[in-house]
């Protein structure tokens, strides 16, 4: 299992601040202003409504402390922890205007990231008897990449590229720049790349993989939408000379069989772009 994930508060602040500003508008929380006195205080508990894995507690905390640094947030668990329906994740105590003003932003970030961590853990557990790593991709929601990738790590997964400048990944649209020639693309990539830059090539067929292997350039091969027999054959062809990544059509139901072909990585874009949020609620009581 990877080390406990961590993102310093400063990396969360701008995103949470912007989310609060988006929600509060220019008039603030009219409902709470109408119903509560300025000195009214509240204590509330974040509780899981279903089983899952927690991620995003720091973002949740900032949704309140950015509104009022005197707000108290105490954790009952940590990111990366498996929780059951009914478990308390954290408590928040402070002015009612702060607790209710930050409630939706806090729940949005905590529920969304916990959903990612939860489904990641499901797949990690399914393939734990293999060497395959579970990875997300760059298919993230704009502005949330660092946090979504953090949530994948909280669920026991790993990250693919964070950005375009992390590594060279040659896909079919890039091959079009070289008239479809894998050899030319790999040679140009190696001539351009620094000695620390990884080169990955996406291949759709075993014939493409055979051509690529003859160049001895790529560090990683991305096997796109290959069948189980093709994946097994591809792993045998690479024979440990590079990292082998499977992508395309991987679901919780198919992940185990794909991992058992011997690939090193399972990459899934849906881990970040279309995962269902974990059901988490905020139970409030007047302090």
TrEMBL record:
Residues 29-114 form the Quinolinate phosphoribosyl transferase N-terminal domain. It catalyses: nicotinate beta-D-ribonucleotide + CO2 + diphosphate = quinolinate + 5-phospho-alpha-D-ribose 1-diphosphate + 2 H(+). Keywords: Glycosyltransferase, Pyridine nucleotide biosynthesis, Transferase. The keyword rRNA-binding does not apply. The keyword Glycosyltransferase applies. GO terms for cellular component: cytoplasm. GO terms for biological process: NAD+ biosynthetic process; quinolinate catabolic process. Pathway: Cofactor biosynthesis; NAD(+) biosynthesis; nicotinate D-ribonucleotide from quinolinate: step 1/1. Residues 116-283 form the Quinolinate phosphoribosyl transferase C-terminal domain. Coiled coil: none annotated. GO terms for molecular function: nicotinate-nucleotide diphosphorylase (carboxylating) activity. Pfam families: QRPTase_C, QRPTase_N. It is an enzyme of class 2 (transferase). Belongs to the NadC/ModD family. Involved in the catabolism of quinolinic acid (QA). Hexamer formed by 3 homodimers. This is Probable nicotinate-nucleotide pyrophosphorylase [carboxylating]. It comes from Acetobacter vaccinii. The gene is nadC.
């Amino acid at each position: 299992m990877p080390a406990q994930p961590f993102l310093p508060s400063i990396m969360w602040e701008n995103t949470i601040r912007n989310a609060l500003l988006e929600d509060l508008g220019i008039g603030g929380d009219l409902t709470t202003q109408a119903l509560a006195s300025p000195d009214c205080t509240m204590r509330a508990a974040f509780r899981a409504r279903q089983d899952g894995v927690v991620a995003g507690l720091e973002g949740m905390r900032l949704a309140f402390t950015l509104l009022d640094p005197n707000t108290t947030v105490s954790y009952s668990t940590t990111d990366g922890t498996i929780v059951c329906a009914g478990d308390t994740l954290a408590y928040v105590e402070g002015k009612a205007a702060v607790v209710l003003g930050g409630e939706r932003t806090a729940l949005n970030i905590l529920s969304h990231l916990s959903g990612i961590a939860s489904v990641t853990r499901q797949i990690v557990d399914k393939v734990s008897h293999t060497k395959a790593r579970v990875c997300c991709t760059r298919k993230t929601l704009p502005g949330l990449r660092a946090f979504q990738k953090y949530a994948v790590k909280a669920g026991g997964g790993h990250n693919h590229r964070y950005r375009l400048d992390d590594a060279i990944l040659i896909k079919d649209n890039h091959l079009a720049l070289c008239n479809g020639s894998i050899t030319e693309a790999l040679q140009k990539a190696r001539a351009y790349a620094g000695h620390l830059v990884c080169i990955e090539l996406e291949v759709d067929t075993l014939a493409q993989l055979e051509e690529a292997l003859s160049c001895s350039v790529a560090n990683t091969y991305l096997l796109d939408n290959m069948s189980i027999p093709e994946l097994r054959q591809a792993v045998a062809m690479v024979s440990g000379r590079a990292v082998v990544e499977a992508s395309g059509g991987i679901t919780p139901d198919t992940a185990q069989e794909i991992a058992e072909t011997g690939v090193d990585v399972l990459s899934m874009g849906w881990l970040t772009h279309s995962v269902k949020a974990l059901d988490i609620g905020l139970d409030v009581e007047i302090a």
